[in-house]
Amino acid sequence: MEHTNNTYEVLIFDRGASYHITADFAHLHDPVCCHVGLVVGCRRIMHATHRGNVWLDIAVSRHVISITLTDVLYVRDWNEACLISRRKIDDLRMFRMIRENGMIEVRKKSDDSVVISAAHEHGSYQVYPIVKYGKIYSASIEYWHKALAHISTCFWNTASDIYADGSLLSTCSTLHFCPTCAKYNS
Questions:
Q1: Under 8 Å CB-to-CB from 54, ≥6 apart: which residues?
Q2: N or C: which end of the chain has fewer CB within 10 A?
Q3: pLDDT in tens, 116-157
């Protein structure tokens, strides 16, 4: 399944963040499981369970620029705006950043074109991209059905009551058909 809708989001361009972070699993393209502990304010530890890419369209100087943030962590309980990490962009060594007049611009070193422009608002540098939803890993009934050893999908509606990460499973219709299960159940 694929979301056909794009939504405007608020992303914070964070000069101190070590990782790009999202709290919306639907933003991730090609997610993979991971376990990364993050120390956040007041030395609280939060855990990322997946990482993937996030595709954004950003309006810069009357043009729309498509960019991909790689290695974005999904933190389920993250209740802040999603973060774009300056450090992760610096590590690529392909961009330079300019901060002046209440703006941060990320520019390509190769041609000096602007790829991210963030205005200083409400105490932080904010970007308002259009987020292109990924193929929703959590809604991929076929994937989860196989990954869970062909477990019956009729139990998925209550999975979040049983498993800590059960909310990743989508609700499933009774119309799901699996040829492997049909072969072994006949």
A1: 20, 22, 27, 28, 29, 68, 69, 72, 131, 134
A2: C
A3: 888 898 888 888 887 766 654 434 566 677 777 777 777 777
* Separation of CA 82 from chain center: 8
Residue range(s) defining the domain that contains residue 99? 6-132
Number of domains in the chain: 2
At 26, give phi and psi (nearest 5°): -65, -15
Q: Give, in degrees to the nearest 5, the angle at Cα 103 between 101 and 107.
A: 120
Backbone angles phi, psi at 175, to 5 degrees: -85, 0
Which has more confidence, 134 or 25? 25
Model confidence pTM above 0.70: no
pLDDT digits (tens, 9 = 90+) for 60-72: 777 788 888 999 9
Distance between CA atoms of 87 and 19, rounded to whole angstroms? 8
Q: Facing residues of 132 across strands? A: 6, 55
| Cβ-proximal residues to 12 (8 Å cutoff; 6+ apart), any chain | 80, 81, 82, 83, 84, 124, 125, 126, 127
